[in-house]
User: Fold Sensor histidine kinase from Kineothrix sedimenti.
Amino acid sequence: MARLWNYIQNRMNDFNVKKKLMIVYVCCVLLPLFATDSAVLAILLQGESREQGLLMKNIASAVQFDLSYTLEEAVNMTKSIYVNRTVNDFLGKEYESGFDYYAANQELLKAVFSESSWGTGSASMVLFTDNETIVNGGHFYRLSSAEEEEWYRKLKDSGQDMILHFYYVGDDNPSTNTKRRISLVRKLNYFKDSDREKLVRIDLDYNTLVRKITNMKYSMAVYVCIDDKILFSNDGHSSYTQNFEHLTGKEKIGYESQWNLYGEDIRILVMQPTNTISRQIWNHFPLVLFLLAINIALPWLLTYIINNSFTSRLRELSQAFDEVEAESLKEIKDIKGKDEIGSLMKNYNRMVRRSQELIKTVYKDRLERQEMDISRQNAELLALHSQINPHFLFNVLESIRMHSILKKEEETAGMIERLATLERQNVNWTSDFVSIEDEIKFIEAYLELQKYRFGERISYEIAIAPGCENYSLPKLTLVTFVENACVHGVENKASACWIYVRVFEKEDSLYLEVEDTGEGMDEGQVKDLEEKMGSCSIETIKENEHVGIINACLRLKMVTEGKAQFNLESEKGIGTCILIKVPVDALKRS
Assistant:
């Protein structure tokens, strides 16, 4: 469990604020909203369904009871006739004339009316017999007049003593407005001493039954049917002037009760209610959508506002911290809010101000130290210059002196002129840099003076590639290597020697090459000098040997920030070659 909790926390730490707020919105607003509404709606619908089921069952029972009670009244009416001896004898007696029948009929009506009723407002009674001596009319008819009737054929075909029959008389009986009939027909066969067929028919009032079911004001539609024939209902389908309607199959039946009533399978259908919760929701669907949108939109809007409150200021704070990598510390000008983020922004500004104060202090100390280092280095360079100049001028002047003593020629004037050129370049230290073109002129003047000293023993060749003339070098850099070639190479060799000076550019680097065919060095000397050139420093210069070369190397390293590379090749008795490689982006152009 602890591992799962740590995993969830680590995952949440990886999400940005916007995603975290969206998770809160979904988990704490949307999901509870839908879950709660769905649960409440399900409970309401389930409760309503259960309540409606019980209500529909009660309605069906009430309708069944009402129909049963009405028909039971009609059955009771038939019973009074069924067991009445006087009525039975009246129907079975043969009358000699119509007058005799009429007299018996009057006596019977007086006797029967004292015991029971021939009919009420909701039912009427008619008796039939196969006695041809009676006269049709009133409540008595010959059976022959009913043999073609639908109800009589149904009774004969059923084989039962009593049936219930629903039928439509149509236009065959224009004397009545009520064309839908409900009749209870019963055989009068209680007394077995007569062979005559006798029947009683109770005609129930159709409109009375319809009014009963309508007046009950049921909250749901109720259909009383035989198979798919609708006998009557409380929502129409009960027009007594038209034939019975039938179920279409599209009715939404919620509950059905069925029982057999005197040979008829009666179906009581209770339709699903229309005024349900789901129907109310559908009827007010725009309002439901509006409320749902409000419940979703308002929390989302609040989440959006909170997200902007967080992310905008956090983004501004993050950008401020990003500028630290660019070595730029800036205060946040507009601090918004008094919450934790606003407090963090204020603390950031306080940190920036403190850091700037510390930086100023540190930079000031560093600049003072750098100025001291530069002053020290300049003093050391001036000391080096003072070491080089006397040494160099001594050799030149000695050459001029010896030549003047031996030759006593006007060439001395040319030598002095070249010496003046060298001296002007040598003593002018207002700038430590000189273009390669001026440095080559200095080298040519120096080599011409050396030719006076060595005569035919020295020759030289200078080659500078186009475009390299404008690069700047520390003054007296290249001439120092040429001087070293003359002093340590040519001077110690009796045979004629050559000095080559080459400057060229290749692959974004400037190459300076000084080669001589002088005395050369052995392998140990080459290795020692090359190591000193590569690791030159002020301490190295304090040594006496090759001070000029080490000084030139140090100055090149200083102006190129250590990017200058040196390569030395030499062989005893053959000569020496020094190759200097400097990236062009580390050099100045004049």
